[in-house]
């Protein structure tokens, strides 16, 4: 998707991505668009920083890395494609975007008045994923080929964790790439969400709305389904009854496929390296990272993971 347009050079502090750096990017992006951000509230810090701007009824996504420009361009294209096909999904704010603030991609979205998905909404996730997977592929742009481990190695390289953890995780990545290459998937390739967990739903007036299009790609839908299955089996976030609701809503149980264990291990490393990026943000996050990597090392699942 290539060339960067809508560029703003600004005085952004150096250093690793943090809530402070993201706030500086937000200030410049808001000044560029004229969108009021004086009452901005940080909603989430993960692969992106998400801010709610109540005065403007907007949500701003700021990417963690200057390397994610193409992903931001794709998010805008995917949002328009989903809207054209009637998929209940987040809608863009009416400004030229994405915007590059000293290299950090920023996008503006219409605020959805509701709550994030949670307990009781896993069936809605299954139904929305089925709708996405059955949506005809876009014709005005091309989705990238699925690379499920694309961001794992950069996360490991930049994280402030012991070298022994990094060596363990990088070795696991090599093993998983080899195992993935050997898989024979039972389902046909489709458009996939790429980060298909229940918190990437908003529930507004009782209706589920899909959000977060950064990892959309063309590939195997089993990866989307295996996310909830891994949350159930590895993290302990769902009961057997809730997981059954998800499978019933979608019409398929990915755990019955003999290749599922590879998908499960891959999602475990994705979930662990995602939280690893923020170990300096709080003692709670550092403790959760320690729990997750110990689960991966030992194979024991007696210590539930905490969602963040």
From TrEMBL:
Residue ranges occupied by any Aminoglycoside phosphotransferase domain in the UniProt entry: 51-257
Highest taxon in the source lineage: Bacteria
Membrane-traversing stretches: none
Residue ranges of coiled coil: none
Family annotation (Gene3D superfamilies): 3.90.1200.10
Pfam families documented for this protein: APH
Name of protein: Aminoglycoside phosphotransferase domain-containing protein
Species annotation: Lentzea flava
């Amino acid at each position: 998707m290539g060339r960067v347009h809508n560029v703003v050079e600004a005085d952004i502090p150096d250093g690793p991505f943090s809530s402070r750096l993201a706030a500086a990017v937000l200030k410049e992006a808001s000044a560029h668009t004229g969108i009021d951000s004086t009452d901005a509230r940080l909603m989430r810090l993960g692969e992106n920083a998400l801010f709610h701007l109540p005065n403007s009824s907007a949500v701003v996504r700021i990417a963690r890395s200057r390397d994610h420009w193409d992903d931001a361009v794709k998010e805008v294209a995917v949002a328009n494609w989903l809207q054209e096909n009637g998929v209940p999904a987040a809608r863009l704010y009416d400004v030229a975007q994405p915007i590059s603030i000293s290299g950090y991609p920023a996008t503006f979205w219409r605020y959805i008045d509701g709550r994030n998905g949670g307990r009781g909404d896993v069936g809605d996730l299954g139904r929305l994923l089925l709708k996405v997977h059955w949506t005809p592929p876009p014709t005005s742009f091309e989705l990238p080929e699925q690379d499920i481990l694309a961001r794992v190695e950069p996360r490991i390289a930049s994280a402030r964790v012991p070298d022994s953890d990094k060596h363990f995780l990088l070795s696991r990545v090599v093993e998983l790439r080899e195992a993935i290459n050997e898989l024979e998937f039972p389902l046909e390739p489709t458009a996939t969400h790429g980060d298909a967990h229940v918190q990437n739903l908003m529930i507004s007036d009782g209706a589920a709305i899909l959000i977060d299009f950064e990892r959309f790609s063309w590939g195997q839908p089993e990866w989307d389904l295996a996310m909830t299955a891994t949350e159930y089996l590895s993290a302990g976030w769902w009961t057997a009854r809730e997981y059954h609701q998800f499978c019933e809503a979608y019409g398929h149980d990915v755990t019955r496929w003999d290749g599922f264990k590879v998908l499960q291990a891959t999602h475990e490393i994705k979930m662990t390296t995602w939280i690893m990026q923020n170990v300096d943000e709080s003692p709670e996050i550092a403790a959760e990272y320690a729990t997750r990597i110990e689960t991966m090392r030992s194979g024991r699942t007696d210590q539930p993971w905490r969602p963040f």
